[in-house]
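Posted in: Protein Modeling Q&A

I'm a second-year student putting together a small comparison for a lab meeting, and my supervisor asked me to include a predicted structure for Lipoprotein. I've never done this before, so apologies if this is the wrong subforum. The sequence is pasted below exactly as I got it from our records. If anyone can share the structure token output, I'd also love a short note on what stands out.
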Amino acid sequence: MKHLSSLILTALLGLVTLSSCQKEESTPQQTQEAKFIYASQVENAFQLTPLADLAEGVQTSFDNSQTLPVGHLFLEKYGDYIYAMSGSMYGYGGEQTLRKYQMSEGKLKEVATLSFKGSPNVIEIIFASDTKAYGVTCASRGQLVIFNPSTMQEMGEIDLSPYAATDPKAEAPDKDPDAGTGIVRDGKLFLCLNQTKSMMELYDEPASVAVIDVATDKVEKVIKDARVQSLGMVGHTNAILDEAGNIYFYSGPRSAMFGKHEGILRIKKGETDFDKEYYVSVTKADGAEPTSYGMTMTYYKGKVYFFLEKPSLVVDPNDKTFTKNKDFVPYELDLKSGKGKILPLPASSGWSANATIAYNGKIYFGIHAKDGMGFYSYDPATGQGSNKPVVTTPAGIYKIIKL
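Accepted answer (user: helix_wrangler)
Welcome! Here is the predicted structure, written out as tokens:
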């Protein structure tokens, strides 16, 4: 648990990337049209790097990268633009500026910025349309910032403070329900409320999701389910939307680590309440351990792919570099049956255990392994995985998005 607490603390500070670089010759990729952007942390900056392809033998460099200061990284494509921000998570690092980019001659070109007023600690963005998005705040007043991504101007706030859990013994009530992962479906924003006392402490509260009408920005209700606690950990989980329009939320690292009720819940298409017939546990899946957890997940044909943390693989509990221990294994979990399996790929260090993507029928994992660093591939059709990177990178990979 000492190792896990140290690791999640680092992850919460947005540092689940590899700081060191490999010095090796690289094949320039920016001469081709970029299909992806991947992010790495090198020393005190994030490198946002265009990538032309996930093809065998590709090597990348940071020659045409865009940099952001260290903090909690948000990176997403919406419409024709790429949005990125290094936010301040629980007071660590970052800035209060959302940056809007478009691709130009193989590089990210900044076209607009939005500096949020009053330092509300915006760390995640949820897009509703071309003209409306929501800024999720961390350790703030319990507000959800509304802004227009087309004009990059603030439009208002939604007050979430009435929905905050609190400790009756506390000197002052907690007014922040700690918004987490969210997604817009059918005109409703489904927003997880993490209900945390502090960065490393949770309230004993059931999973909570605020259902917000996008047209009016009014909270219609907050739904709860005691089978899971602290659903949709901010910055470390993502909402899954399957082909049928069902939403899946996962608790994330903290619940499993702290011995709380973890797992995945579903809100079916056309519904605004939890599906009482559906629950999947990650810690009880094949190959998992009592405090195992995953972070962001990639959905592909009824299954999710992610890195599963296995405490039994830790060989040096005192390693503070988070590079010696390869305790994160590539994993596949069937959302219908709840059955999972460890994939035939190398285990990764905690510095690179977050980047996965589905592309051309394969799943790619950003791995920092003993024998190589970069993107490894897994073919769900054949069950075969690569034993070396198909794409090598100069540093560990935090996130990848498709353009």
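A couple of things worth pointing out for your meeting: Confidence is low (pLDDT under 50) at residues 1-30. Helices lie at 2-12, 253-257.
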